[in-house]
Each structure stands twice: as C-alpha cells, then as structure tokens.
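User: Show me a protein chain along with its predicted structure.
Assistant: Here is one chain, sequence first, then structure tokens.
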Amino acid sequence: MSYAPYPAYKDSGVPWLGQVPEEWEVKRLSYATRFKGGSTPSKNEDQFWIDGTIPWVSPKDMKRKEIHDTEDHLTELGALQSASGLIYPGHVMMVVRSGILRHSIPAAINRVPVTVNQDMRVFLPFRELKSEFIYWVIEGLQKTLVDLWSKPGTTVESLETEYVNSSPFPVPSIGEQTAIADFLDKKTAEIDDLIAKKEELLRLLAEQRTALITHAVTKGLNPNAPIKPSGVVWFDQVPAHWQVRRLKDVGTLIGGAGFPHEFQNVQGEELYFYKVGDLAKSEDGIHLTSAPHTISRETAAKLRATVIPPDAILYAKIGAALLLNRRRISTANCCIDNNMTAWIVDPSKVLPLWGFYWMSTVDFGEHTNPGAVPSLSEGYQSILPITLPPLDEQQAIVDQLTNETQAIDQTAQKTREAIEHLLEYRTALITNAVTGKIKVA
C-alpha cells in the first residue's frame, strides 16, 4: 500500500532527517521534554522491597510497547526515595546502559505508576510532545539514534544524556502526533500479527522436522521390523537388528583449545579455526564450509589445538550456545575453540550424516551439569547413546531424511525471508511516518 506525501516540505537542517513537512518544527529534545535518570534503593533495605506494589522497571522488562507490571516491586516509599521518584502513567522509558544498545534502543510507555533502575531514563514530555509519538520516533530511528546519542568511536553500551538532550527531534502539531501514533498502533499491530503467524509456522516446521528425524533414527523406515527394548530412557524401542552403542565406542571425542585474540581474524592459513559462534553460520544448516579465522599447523601446535579432520561433528559443550543444540559437520581440516567438542566418527560404523541426524535429536539442555553455566562434561558426552543400523540402512535413511528435511528447510527459509521483509516494511513505515515522508491523516 502506498501513502501520499505532504503538500509541501522544507529543509530540516538535519542531514539524517532531511526534508520535513512545511508545518513541522525541529527542536532540540531539551526544549520539548525533560530526561530523567533512575536508580533504586539497595535490596538490602528490606523495607523498600517487602510487600512492594510499585513496579520497578529494568532493561529485562523492555520487551513490549506498554508496561503494566514487572517481576520486581518497590514500596511507594522506596519509589519516592529513588532518583527517578514515582513516575506516573504515560511516560516513555528508555534503556541507556546495556550491551544490547549496539543493536537497538529498547523503549516502552508505562501505563501504571512505576520507578526505574539506574540503567534507564524517562522522558517527561512538555505540551509540545506526546509520549506515544516519542516512542514511535525511537522505534523507527533506532540505528540513527544509537549513533546520535552515544560517544563517537566507542563500543556502544551507554547513551549520553547530554547527546540526547541536544539532539534534534521532529515536532509536528499535537493533533498530527496523535494521528501518527494511532496510525502506527493499528498498522504495526497488523504487521505483528502476520509475523506472529509466520513465527508459529516456523515453530511447527521445526517440530515436524525434529519428529521426522527422531522417528527415522530410532524406528527406521520399515514399520513392520521386529523391535527390542533400547535400554535408553528417552527412546524405548529400536529395530531388533540395530545396535545401541556409546559415542566413545564408535568415534573419538576431541576438546577444543584456547584461541588468544592475537591469533584471530587471520585469513589464508591452512586450517580453519572455528569459534562457537561460527556454528550459526552454516549455509545449509549441516556443514561448515568456511571460517573468519585461519591458523597454520605451527600455530595449532603452539596452541595445543588438535587438528580435526573433515566429516567430524562439531557442537558447543558449555554456556548458552550449548542450549541452542546446533550440530555441524566439518568439511576441511580445522581446529575448534575450548567451548566446543568434535566427535570424529569411525566411518566403518557410523556415516557422518547419520551421526549428525542422531545428534540433532539429543537435547543437551536435558543433560547439562547443574550450575549457573550449563555444561556437558567430556565423560558424560562419551557415554551418550547412539542407535546403529547397518551402514547400508544408515545410508537409505539418510537419503530419505535429506530429501524430506530439504523440503521443510526450503519452506522454513521462505518463511524467515517473509518475516525479514515484514520487519523491514514495519521499520520503513514507522520511519516514514514519524519523519513526515508520508501523510497518514
């Protein structure tokens, strides 16, 4: 759908804003609103936390447009004694200190009285700006405002109050601000509904894919094959002629090595060096065909890094990456960092793709060691079970799985691309509306 422009425009005097409708003004934020910081009493001061009824807002709560409640609460006295004080409904809250500021500026409007923590700031609009309009400007101009409101040349983890206060801001009439906010509320809700439906489709496709693989690698292709108890908790029976072995019985498990910064970001050497984040960069979701880091065999020896051959199955063994359950197959000699394990299969017993599909059915989150950081010990990894049909049957099952999962993966990829296009359209629509490139009322 296309929208008409305003009848006349003028130069805003601001390069990133360009031309604005002739009737609009451009003002520094400090002329149109106050920017107030937050803090909170220490949790050791129990009187401020026990039986609290005032929501205490922190960056973790900034996942939606409107805040009605939070996990943490202060008493009214605690809220009044915090730096932000008691913030009455209808104000824009914004995260100003967080690692996620490298990518976006989380913002929300409080619909109940709240107080905010030290990583937050609150816009207290005067008559010239409505909170809803401020929110949509922040939502539509994320990347521009991150650059504008942070110190030049720094890794953005905080926004500077002086830069926020002095930055230019488009100011239409109050009536137009209301019309723009109402328009964006309606249109983004429609887009978000479409995105939610496509995300639900992705979830269902992932479930279908997992169920397909799980059935194939535990039951095989012949529904009439005799079966026997597996001896394993999470799959009770297998075809009678299959074996159930441990990973260490049919391959070798190799841990990774530390990778100091001075050896990183080198290209052209003989060996790929994979860091745990590289598991997300597979083009087909199965193989790793390139890496942003390479090292020589001499460097590998210096780092005491084992050279991993092609057709090894690589996966994370510690940290949040472990819970993502990504498995990849190496396609060239490589080394891996110390957050990963390589399972080098015995090709006389296990086809690499069979090992990959089998490992894809194992949820590492259900097998992690207790503690703040999820991890899998090498001893536990070594005794994980694997089903083993004869090699020719492995090949037949792998061929069928490859065909069937390819169709699912193609649908999933098209769905992800559709979501990306919807998100791009959403951002463009917001940006064009709040900068006056389109007239919505």
